[in-house]
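>> received
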Amino acid sequence: MGTNNFSLVPTPRSISFYFKLKKVVFVMAEKSKYYRVRIVYSGRVQGVGFRWQVEREASGFEVTGFVRNLSDGTVEMMVEGKRVETCRMIEAVERRLRDYWKSKTEDEREGEPQFDGFSICCL
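>> returned
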């Protein structure tokens, strides 16, 4: 019979492997969670094609949600999707439209997507 190299006694090497594996599993789980991010932009954001450009930018990402003008002159954007994808989409929007928005408020939560696709909404 052959010898079994498997041991139930933890060794420094097996403990190190366990924690590395646990970290990889955690990171993978974190990337697969769905997030909903609501951002309200203020500045020169209405009447300049802001919503249209956000919708166009969103088409390149696997996200759902909407963008709409609010009655106080701000623009609300709701983005849903996996964390990495929502972050990339938001970064792309903010980079593309950096000359229009001056400040923002942001709220992020975990949750399953509630929208089909990404669209421009009206109040």
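>> The chain has one domain: 33-121.
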